[in-house]
Each structure stands twice: as C-alpha cells, then as structure tokens.
Amino acid sequence: MKRKVIFLVLIAIFIIAPLCEAGSKIGIVLMHGKNGSPATPSVLRLASRLDFEGFIVITPDMPYSRARQYDKSYEDTAVEIDGAVAELKKRGANRIFIAGHSLGANVALYYGTIKVVDGVLAIAPGHVPETTQFQERIGDSVEHAKVLLKEGRGDERARFQDTNQGINSTIMVTPKIYLSWFDPDGHAVMPRNAAALKPGPAFLWVIGTQDRLYKRGSAYAFDKVPANANNKYLVVNSDHMDTPKDAAEEVVKWLKHFE
C-alpha cells in the first residue's frame, strides 16, 4: 500500500509540477526611449533584473532609436512589436506584457489599444505632441510637413524638428512618417490612447518625482484607462532617465502577481 502511495505521489510531482511551471510564463517586450537603444543603461538594468527573476524579455531596437531615426511610421511600429510578441510565444511565454520607457511607454500604450495583451507598463512615459509646450518647439515643422503632404510630396525626405526632454534636434524623414509621430491630432497622444486601451489588460504607470510629466499627475492619462483591480500608479524617487532601473524592484513585485 505504501509503495502505491509513493508511486502516486511521484506521478503527481512529475505531472502537476511542470503544469504549474508552464501555467504562467510571462513574456515582456521592453522598448527603449527616443534616441536610445536596447543598451540604454537604465533600460538594460531593468531588462537584466527581469531576466534574473525568470521573465522572458525581449528588448528590440525600435524605429525611433539613435541608429534608425524614425525609419517607420508610428503605426507601422506595431508590426515590429508583433514580431517580438511572436518570438516571446516561441520561447514559451503565455502571458504577454508590453513595456516601454519614455517614447517606448507611449508606443506600448498605443499597442494596447489595437492588440490583445495581458498588461501594459508605461515607465517614465514621454512624447506629448498634443501639449502647447511641445508644439511651440516643433509646430513649424508639423505645419511644413502638412504642406508637403498636400503638395503630394509626402514620401520625400526633408528636415524637421524633434524635441526630447526640452532639447531640440533635426531629423531627416518623410512628411508622412513625421506627422505620424508628431501630429498633435495623431495616434501618439497618450491621454487618448489611455481611454482607448482595450478592456482587460492590467496597466502600470511609473513616474519619477523629478520627471517633467510628474506634475500632471494621474489625471493626465492613468485615470482614463479602463478599470482593472491590478492597475497601479507608481511614483518613485527618480528622474526621467533613471526611472527604469530605480523602479525595477517595484516593477518585479507588480509582475509577480500574474505568475
């Protein structure tokens, strides 16, 4: 009788344990910010911590990276995220979370409006083309791009203004691509995307006390997302660039709830 009990216990261990392990394998697409790369120190630190904790993490080089300089439209960027999600699933992930830092957070939020995911993490969100301050810096370029578009020159590369945390720069892109990222009425508007987030995914908004967006509070975008018991507005003592690494422990704690 004892041998039979031991045999059944062993069967339970070998059958049930793997099922439990496979039951909640979390995969995370973690996107860097504007003019950054997967090797951006703070993003790399967060990715390393997530990997150490057993999550499956992919950190793609995005179209708005320093190397690529907006070589795809805002909307077409979602196709690249699709590829990363597919790779996560190949690696065994059965719960998908889309995360990003700064402009990556902006894109992550948009992706949650068009695709079904388990969660969205907006870490030190950035890129606010709908604001007056932002348009004061790049508004002339937006109008110029619109004129070129009306003239049928939407696919001709030209010089336009970009701005990142108060610092202006010049980029060479087509008017169509430029407007997809910088039009104040375009798809890159976070409050609008927050309200349009598909019901179901959990949402984490992480903001540093020294971040430009901190003063706008939860009313800016977080309060607009569909209700979910797991939604969290997380404030950390950090600046815009260091928030990913400084929030790593709390991000891990939040994600552990879904395992």
Can you offer a commentary on this structure?
By secondary structure, the protein is an alpha/beta fold. The chain has two domains: about 25-130 and about 185-259, Rossmann fold (3-Layer(aba) Sandwich); about 130-185, no CATH class. The protein has helices spanning about 1-20, 40-50, 75-90, 105-115, 130-150, 175-180, 190-195, 245, 250-255, and strands at about 25-30, 55-60, 95-100, 120-125, 160-165, 165-175, 200-210, 230-235. It has a six-stranded parallel beta sheet, sandwiched between helices. The protein has a two-stranded antiparallel ribbon with strand order 5-6.
Secondary-structure blueprint:
Blueprint: H1 2-22, E1 26-31, H2 41-52, E2 56-58, H3 77-90, E3 95-102, H4 103-114, E4 119-125, H5 132-150, E5 158-164, E6 167-173, H6 175-182, H7 190-196, E7 202-208, E8 232-236, H8 243-246, H9 248-256
Parallel strand pairs: 1-2, 1-3, 3-4, 4-7, 7-8
Antiparallel strand pairs: 5-6
Helix pairs in contact: 4-7, 5-6
Largest sheet: 6 strands, parallel
Uncertain residue segments: 4-22
Strand segment tally: 8
Under the CATH scheme, which architecture of the largest domain would be assigned? Answer: 3-Layer(aba) Sandwich
Radius of gyration: 21 Å
* Average pLDDT figure: 92
Return the CATH topology of the largest domain.
Rossmann fold
Task: Give the strand content.
Answer: 15-25%
Helix/sheet category: alpha/beta
CATH superfamily of the largest domain: Alpha/Beta hydrolase fold, catalytic domain
What is the domain total for the residues?
2
Q: Please give the count of helices.
A: 9
General form = globular
SSE topology string? HEHEHEHEHEEHHEEHH
